[in-house]
Structure formats: structure tokens, C-alpha cells
Write a structure and sequence with these properties.
The structure is a homodimer of 180-residue chains.
Chain A (H helix, E strand, L loop, with lengths): L11 H8 L1 H15 L7 H14 L3 H15 L4 H8 L8 H15 L6 H9 L4 H23 L12 H9 L8
Helix pairs in contact in A: 1-2, 2-8, 3-4, 3-5, 3-6, 3-8, 4-9, 6-7, 6-8
Chain lengths: 180, 180
């Protein structure tokens, strides 16, 4: 049961966004900007970062929904996210994405944990400043969304199946609230 | 030196907001909504939560600027923030604020670290669901802002003096960007 009374039965962040529309607007705008606006990192790559950080924060709802969104963008069957979670170094992603995922993992621990040498590795692998910027900000933002969802103890479905349609909608329709 | 090249010399988050206006908009809208829109928790109380969480994340820029904003709202001379940082239990704040600050500190660790018994203590001390909601979301949001600022290794002035004018402006003018 959530720590506060919600007037709806929606899972995870959805129930909070529904009941608190004033804070929902900037939270949804931010997710849309970070994950869906045009960028040299694809939406699939950005959702992968979001899902990876949410996994490190043990946030079931955010991890499951953004893994489903990444999968919808990448048109795979969770192979990539599974490989990243198993071992970034052997996952079938570019050296640039490996380096960016390692930085995202450092941000999950603390902003101060990001190592200069790993930023250099990312740059040497071709990461631009804009790509480093959005990687750090996505990782930071999911440290917020994850804490919001779990800090208020919202419920979330278990397993991957319940998130497949949701992930498809996140990938195709996006995060802006109806009426925005 | 910041991990990425910035086209300005503004400190902390200011330099990032200036160079990346697309992400700046929802980030500023969120800060304005969390810290300055009318709420039963005063802006001074909300800035205190922001400063406290930023201190726990060792984020010098965010802590110093939001401590200055809290001080500007509260019209004190850092007495309250200093007392909170020394020991929440003996700080001259209400039992409700003590309980909310303890929850904010738990959110700083992880959303999953928030304890049911501490939520109950806050409710018994008079905290409403809206107050619990905004406390958790402010604490979560500063886990993002702090990681954004330090994850990109922005510079920040040391000491309290350089932040006093900034804090006054944050309290009186707010967070929305010029032209919004």
C-alpha cells in the first residue's frame, strides 16, 4: 500500500501523476525532453540508460516500464537490456554506449563518483558533449523518478508481460499528459 | 573544470541551464513548482528540505544556494539550517518538520529506505498526504539536481557569502527562466 492515500489504482508513477497534476506537468515534460525529443543518442539508447539506472536503484516499476520502452524502440525481445544488465563490457553495444552506461552507473551512486578517466574514455569512443550531458541528466533524473515511485511505496506489477503495452505506448505516444 | 565544454562561466547548475535551454525549461518549471508555488509547507520549509538533502549528497553548489534561499525566506542568519545539519532532533522546528526531514534523509539514500513507521510518525505529528508527497518529491528531485551539477563537475564558489544574493533572488524572483 502506498504511504499516502491515492484516489486511483494506477501503478507506479502513473498513480502519482494522476493525483498530483501540478507536479506531473514538469515531470512529464522532462521525461519527454530527455527520452523522446530528437537527439544524436536514439530514444532506444536513452531508454536503455533509464532502464539500467532504474535497475541499479532496484525500482521495479521504472525498470520494467523503461526496459519495455527500450525494447519497443529497439524492436528486440529484451536481448539488449538483458545483455547490459549481465555485463556492460560484453553487451552488443558500441564502445561509446558502453562508456556512457558506465558513467550513468557512476551517476547512480553520486554525481561526485563520475571519474574524469571514464569521461575521457567516452570522448575517445566518440561521445559528444551533448551526449555526455544527456547521459548524466537521464541517470540523475531516474535517481529522482525511482525515489519518487518507491519513496511513496507505490505498487507495481511483477514480471515483464504487464509492461509490454505500456512500453510500446511510452515509445510511440510518449510522456506528455493528455490535454497538454 | 567541467567534464564538458560550457560556453559560459556561470557556476553550478546555472551554466548548464544556460547552455542547454531545452532541458532547462522542465528543470526550472519543476523547481518553481516544488519550492515556490503555494503549499501548506512554506517555501522556507521546502528550501530547508532541499538544502538538507543537497548537504547529504555533498553538493556544494545546491546546498549553499538553497541554504541561502531558505535563509532569505526564513529571515534568519542560517541558524535554522545549521541547527538541522547539527541534529534534526534538537533543531527548533516542529515535530512535523522533524519527521519530514527524517523521511527526506531516507529518500536521499533510496526510495526503498523510507520506513512505514517514520511515515506514521509524520502523520501523527500532523503531516498531510500532500506534505508527505512534496517532501518525498523535493528530496528525490534534489538527488537529481545534485547529480546533474556534480556529475558534470561544474565549479562552485566556496563559503556562504557568494550565495547570499543568489539565495535572495531564488526566494524572491524564483526559478523560471527569463522569457518563459
Amino acid at each position: 500500500m502506498a504511504h499516502i492515500h491515492l484516489k486511483n489504482e494506477l501503478p507506479g508513477i502513473s498513480g502519482l501523476l494522476f493525483d498530483f497534476p501540478e507536479t506531473a506537468k514538469p515531470l512529464c515534460d522532462l521525461a519527454e525532453t530527455l527520452l523522446r525529443k530528437p537527439h544524436s543518442l536514439t530514444s532506444g539508447e536513452r531508454e536503455l540508460i533509464a532502464a539500467y539506472v532504474s535497475h541499479k536503484n532496484n525500482c521495479n516499476f521504472c525498470h520494467s516500464s523503461h526496459a519495455a520502452a527500450a525494447t519497443a524502440h529497439l524492436k528486440d525481445d529484451y536481448e539488449l537490456i538483458d545483455a547490459v544488465l549481465a555485463d556492460i563490457n560484453t553487451a552488443p553495444v558500441s564502445d561509446k554506449m558502453k562508456a556512457l552506461l558506465i558513467i550513468a552507473g557512476q551517476v547512480q551512486q553520486s554525481g561526485l563518483a563520475v571519474k574524469e578517466e571514464d569521461v575521457l574514455k567516452a570522448k575517445n569512443a566518440g561521445a559528444t558533449d551533448a551526449e555526455l550531458h544527456i547521459t548524466v541528466l537521464i541517470a540523475a533524473a531516474f535517481c529522482m523518478y525511482n525515489r519518487y515511485v518507491d519513496g511513496l511505496s507505490t505498487w507495481s506489477p511483477k514480471g515483464r508481460e504487464p509492461y509490454k503495452e505500456m512500453g510500446k505506448r511510452m515509445a510511440e505516444v510518449g510522456y506528455l499528459r493528455t490535454g497538454q
